[in-house]
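WARN no homologs supplied; continuing
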Amino acid sequence: MKLSQLATIRTNFPEAHFWIIRRSSAEHVGKPIREFNPEHIGIRITALNLLLPDYLYYVMVHMHHIEYWKTLTTGTLNLVNIRVSDVRNIELSPT
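OK structure emitted
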């Protein structure tokens, strides 16, 4: 199951539960934060009976910690970015 089946994911989304830094240095891109910025990727869980927003937030913290996003970044200078589709296509496993 993909994350997009359980959540609304887009930029300029002030109603999101949390946001992912979309454009930054390779060190910070993909980091989840709780402050709205229209440039960041907002995630709002729609299936609250299947996935808690705080749990997903900490899953994203872990993904950033293990440098998951570094393989998906585009850009060649100090400023790199990830796409909204990269977040939408995250595969979730029931186990």
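The radius of gyration is 13 Å.
OK
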